[in-house]
Amino acid sequence: MRARNSWRVFVLLCAVAKAACAQTSPIENAAQFLKNGDTAQAEVEARKALHTPATRPLALAMLGTIRLQQGNTAESVKLLEQALALNPKLVGARTTLGNAYAFSGKGELAAKCFRQVLNLDPNNFDARFDLFKLESSRRNFQQSLDWAKPMMPQLLESDEAIVALAADYGALGKKEELRNLVPHWQRLTDASDEVALDFGSTLLLYGMKPEATEVFEQEEARVAARPRSGLALKLGSAFLTLGLFDKAERNAQLSLSLSADCLACYQTLAQVAERQDNSEKALAYLAAAKKLAPEDPDVLFEFGKVCLERNLVDDALPALSKAVELKPENDSYVYVLGSANVARGHLPDALKRFQQLLQKHPADAVLTYAIGAVYYLQGKYSEAETSLKQSLAVQPNQVAASYYLALTYDAIGDDDRAIPIFRDLLKNNPKHVPSYVKLGGILLRAHQYEEAQQNLQRAVSLDPDSVEAHYQLGLVLRRLGKSADSESEFAESRKLEAEQRAQKDVRLRLLLPD
User: Fold this and answer.
1) What is the C-alpha separation between 53 and 313, in angstroms, rounded?
2) I need a labelling partner for 46 at 20 to 30 A (CA). Which of 27, 66, 124, 425 fits?
3) Which residues make Cβ contacts (< 8 Å) with residue 495, sequence separation at least 6?
4) CB environment 177-214: b (16+ within 10 A), e (fewer)
5) How far lies 107's CA from each of 88, 114, 135, in Å?
6) CA–CA separation, 379 and 368 (whole Å)
7) What digits encode the pLDDT tens for the residues 447-457?
8) Per residue in 392-437, pLDDT tens?
9) Contacts of 31 (CB under 8 A, 6+ apart)
10) How many CB atoms lie within 10 A of CB 465?
11) Of 146, 512, 50, which Cα lies nearest the Cα of 310?
């Protein structure tokens, strides 16, 4: 609920004042000053009426309304209660008191005030309107709609009311009623930009993507005509949620052009780039964000995570370490730092991080997988087998845990257990290149050359840049007597290896185990 309408209550107060006494000028003047946003002069006028018994209740009510406008809800409640103690029939003051309670989070007291007003004045639109919005905000959606029904035509002309109705309809599963609000919204001529974003977000929340897009695009045209950094950024985030990346980037860039030190702009642009699978571009935005906020843990984490995804482990580790130092309670930060330690080969440090997390989340399948993968890299195959089996017992369809369990059996020479796991994994995940490569290598050792060739050719077709797939395929082709084809695969393997050696090497991409 917003305080922007609190001055309207004093239209009622002034009417009461005129009926109560002849000396209403200070109160009327105060109401006019308050309507114009001049709270200081409004208070001066209201205090003039404090010393006359006939106008003291209205003066106290006016001062209570001024305090509400100023955000001092505790003082507002105190003044309004004093006014009502002197004159319980001041319906405007009681409505304002209801608003003050609502802003203070005292929903039940607010609802009681509004109902009392309606008992005194059943046709009081303001109290019914505020009660309707209050019940919606309290998630009493059906009650909110019940209060709304007698004044529905008026509500459909209010931006705030349409958003509250949208929340009610959406929560109650009334999709058609929710959809029918859009034409009413489009006919509004003075909708608030912030409320427009709320309406679009509500539509999106309840699965109405085309309608939400329409609202956001309408708002985008308004913002383009009168650019404001904060609104442009919120629109960018909204379009990002919709998956409209070009629009998201355009609005975030507009926001950045209006506010060069906008940290959130760089973060949003980085998110857009990541969603577009452009990690290089994302990293550039995050580097700019990191320059603006070198101690921001969220920025450091995102920067470190993208560095890790791009195999820039030397850059990832200090950023992630600092993020964990600043937010040690954030489990995601700790996990990714553990992953970076794995990538750098700091296996004891990684294992310590994962084990600490597992103490907090003992049934977490991903953590038991991560620990099993580290044990595998350390050559502790019995411990690796135990952890990986525990992970699969909790979450049987994991690709990564199954893959590393099969690798563990391969490492100890137990082909009879490794081969079925690889085959089952590929049956359910027919594009998992590492499994084709490893299975092909095992079948090569077992002299099952034709099946080995099939698996390795599949690996090469899925990932032409796989050094190991080309090399293993070269070995198989040599065994099959296809010397020219074999040499071609070896040459491709050597070429790719030279290219990749120039890049940062990562021993295990634990963060992206697929």
Assistant:
1) 76
2) 124
3) none
4) ebbebbeebeebeebebebbbbbbbbbbebebeebbbb
5) 21, 11, 8
6) 16
7) 999 999 999 99
8) 999 999 999 999 999 999 999 999 999 999 999 999 999 999 999 9
9) 7, 10, 11, 13, 14, 42, 62
10) 12
11) 512
On whether the CB atoms of residues 233 and 252 are closer than 8 A, the answer is yes
- Across 191-199, average pLDDT: 93
Predicted TM-score of the model (pTM): 0.75
Question: Is-contact 258 273, C-beta < 8 A?
Answer: no
The average pLDDT across 341-346 equals 95
pLDDT attached to residue 402: 97
- Written as six digits, the tokens of 451 are 């099946």
Tokens of 277: 């699978």
Other beta carbons less than 10 A from residue 501's beta carbon: 9
Amino acid at 258: L
Residue in 303, 305, 355, 297 with CA at minimum distance from that of residue 330: 297
Question: Residues near 360 by Cβ (< 8 Å), separated by ≥ 6?
Answer: 331
* Percent above pLDDT 90 for the chain: 81
Distance CA 452, CA 116 (A): 82
Separation CA 350–CA 511 (nearest Å): 12
Query: Distances in Å between the alpha carbon of 389 and those of 58, 370, 394?
Result: 75, 12, 9
Q: By the 8 A CB rule, do 218 and 196 touch?
A: yes
Q: What is the percentage of the chain residues whose pLDDT exceeds 70?
A: 93
Tell me the CA distances in angstroms from 343 to 240, 333, 376, 392, 504, one per residue in order. Answer: 31, 15, 14, 23, 10
Q: Which two tokens stand for residue 463?
A: 């990932």
What's the whole-number average pLDDT of the chain? 90
Q: What is the pLDDT of residue 33?
A: 87
Give the C-alpha separation, 63 to 58, whole Å.
Answer: 9
Residue-level pLDDT at 420:
97
pLDDT value at residue 503: 57
Write the pLDDT tens digit of every residue in 65-116: 999 988 999 999 999 999 999 999 898 899 999 999 999 899 999 999 999 9
Residues 93/83, Cβ–Cβ less than 8 Å: yes
Structural element, H or E, at residue 144:
helix 141-148
| Spatial separation of the C-alpha atoms in residues 96 and 362, rounded to whole Å | 52
pLDDT band at residue 502 using 50, 70 and 90 as cut-offs? low
Q: In the block, which residue shows the tokens 């608003």? A: 99
